[in-house]
Amino acid sequence: LILFQKGQTSTPPPFEIFFCFGEEWPDQKPKEKKLITVQVVPVAARLLLEMFSGELSWSADSIPLQISHPDLKDKMVEQFKELHQLWQNQQRLPP
User: Which of 7, 30, 47, 60 could be 80's S-S partner, Cβ–Cβ 3.0 to 4.6 Å?
Assistant: First the structure.
């Protein structure tokens, strides 16, 4: 993530985690053909990636299933928004 933020790599790091239940994986079949797959997206990783790429558009409505405690999530989102604002302000300062 740091290398991506510094522009030293053009591809962002992967942050999705996939689980497959009831079948061997990985194998020759794509994950879309598996009987049961679960995709987990760590909210903190997604926010950091969007913050560093300038695409911070995350909202609580953009995640279809949220299991985390809402109060904790709301506090974390506010903290990331503050970090993003600080980062933007720092980018505007002359060297």
Answer: 47
